[in-house]
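User: Hey, my collaborator sent me this sequence without any context and asked if I could get a structure. I don't really work with proteins. Can you help?
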Amino acid sequence: MPLTDSERDELRAVIDARRDELAGEIRTGLARSRDDSFDSIAGEAPDSGDQALASLVADTDNAETNRDLRELRELDAALQRMADGSYGSCADCADDIPVERLRAYPGAARCIACQSVHEKTYSHPPEPKL
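Assistant: No problem. I've predicted the 3D structure and written it out in C-alpha cell form, which is a compact way to encode the shape of the chain:
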C-alpha cells in the first residue's frame, strides 16, 4: 500500500530530525579529530602501545564520521525520492516498502527481500581486525 500523506509527513519529520542530529555528530567528530592530534594521544615519547592506541582512536573517529556521512547521504537521497514521488517504492522491484521499515530506517531504498539480495551480492570480504 502506498504511503499516505500523513505517513509521508511523519517520515519527512523523522528524516529532518535525524539529518540535524547527524550534522551535529559530524561537526563534533571533526572538531574532536582536530583537537586530538596523534601527538597529544600518544604522548611526547610514545612507545609502540601508545602509537597503537593513538592510531586506534583516530581510526575509530574516522569510522564513526564516515558512517554518519553515509547515513546523511542516504537521508538526502530519501528526500530526493520524496521530491520526485518515488519514496516508499523499492528501487529494485518497485513494490511498496512497508511503512514499518521506513519508520525504522527512513533512508531505506529497498524492501527487505531486495535489500537482502543486494547485501549478499555486493558484500565485501571481511577486513582484517586487530
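In plain terms: The two ends are 46 Å apart (CA to CA). You can pass these C-alpha cells on to your collaborator as they are.
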